[in-house]
């Protein structure tokens, strides 16, 4: 096991696409943003979440927990992953959570135009340095890829904020990513079909990598099904979305359209007060993210998780196996949607 004891170092340039709501140690709504920026604990936590989402569709929850602890640590042992981030070009400010929605108020009576949080604005850049055991580096980088290509970091990531663009910073990182066939960029194409095909092939490779990682390790535990969001064909659905003719020119236009004509339109269509509201509160089953091609074109990523794992007293906002939301997307006008087949 000498190979697993060796350390691998990676350097990745990270750019903020949509405002990164991550205030730092003092995260009160009125605080000025703190200098630490993209904080390693937040990034590690997000990577761990995506590791769990992928591995949960391969092994049972107890075995998954043991594998997760091996990579990211637990209360009984430290993480084998070391993360450091360094600000390069910071653009701090306040993010308007409702974007250009200057009129109207929330159901609690707050004016939407006044709802702001400390954030790093678009264009901010950080250097991300990751050190991990050589044997776990493919899984660590794959977890980071899932985060970068499908998700985000910080608050409000399920509503488009905290989207990041990543690229290798040095030759070593670039070579390892090439060997793993992990590209952290969406090609400059005019077709959602090509982007969907790229995601399908990449997700197949990543799931195979996770399966191989699990099969090489003998860990105790039962095979009971995971009761948390799982990234698999039976537990989730994934779509790409853009305007009918072309892409969005920028993230603001994308966020406003997705909020008004997809998210809020679906809530109105289904007569829902809020997607994800429950008592006690549950996270929304719908992740809306905004991504960008190499040519600067913006499009949406919609990831819906099956709500069947929730207790029976909770309503299914997206319908059985996300069926209601899928039907809504199939009839939406003015947009082009493409489903990505999950492995």
Report what the structure shows.
The protein has a single domain (2-340), classed as Alpha-Beta Plaits. A hairpin with a 5-residue loop joins β8 and β9 (298-305). The mean pLDDT is 87. Helix content is 32%, strand content 21%. It is globular. It has 8 helices and 10 strands.
From the structure above, extract its key features.
343 residues, alpha+beta, Alpha-Beta Plaits, four-stranded antiparallel β-sheet, 32% helix, globular
Question: Short summary of the structure?
Answer:
With 343 residues, the chain is α+β, with helices and mostly antiparallel strands.
CATH topology: Alpha-Beta Plaits
Radius of gyration: 20 Å
What would CATH call the class?
Alpha Beta
**Helicity range:** 25-40%
The total domain count is 1
Structural category is: alpha+beta
Total number of strands: 10
Strand share of the residues? 15-25%
In the predicted model, the low-confidence regions spanning at least 5 consecutive residues are none
What is the name of the CATH architecture?
2-Layer Sandwich
SSE pattern: HEHHEEEEHEHHEHEEHE
End-to-end distance: 31 Å
